[in-house]
Specification:
The protein is about 65% helix and about 0% strand. The chain is mostly helical. It has one domain. α1 crosses α3 and α2 (about 15-30) packs antiparallel against α3. The longest helix has 29 residues, at about 35-65. The radius of gyration is 17 Å and the shape is elongated.
Length: about 80
């Protein structure tokens, strides 16, 4: 199974929106069609990698949104200290 880093490398040129849109298309195809097993497995594997890519991008976005505290530590979102 590919690690999150490997998935990010494979789809590194895709934005979150592009990754999410492709993931939605895969889900629709898997839910709507009776595909051969091999095709279903291939789509599933791609979907897992896209979901991982979305997770990586969301984690990166979260880090950018966090606020730096005067002591250099990151505060959790919604933390009222230092406001």
């Amino acid at each position: 199974m590919a690690s999150r880093e490997e998935a990010a490398e494979q789809f590194e040129d895709l934005s979150y929106e592009e990754s999410y849109a492709q993931l939605q298309e895969i889900l629709e195809r898997l839910e709507a069609a009776e595909l051969p097993l091999a095709d279903s497995l291939e789509l599933y594997e791609k979907g897992v990698k896209l979901a991982s890519r979305c997770g990586v991008l969301l984690e990166e976005a979260e880090l950018r949104v966090r606020k730096w505290q005067p002591d250099g530590n990151l505060a959790q979102l919604g933390d009222s200290q230092g406001q």
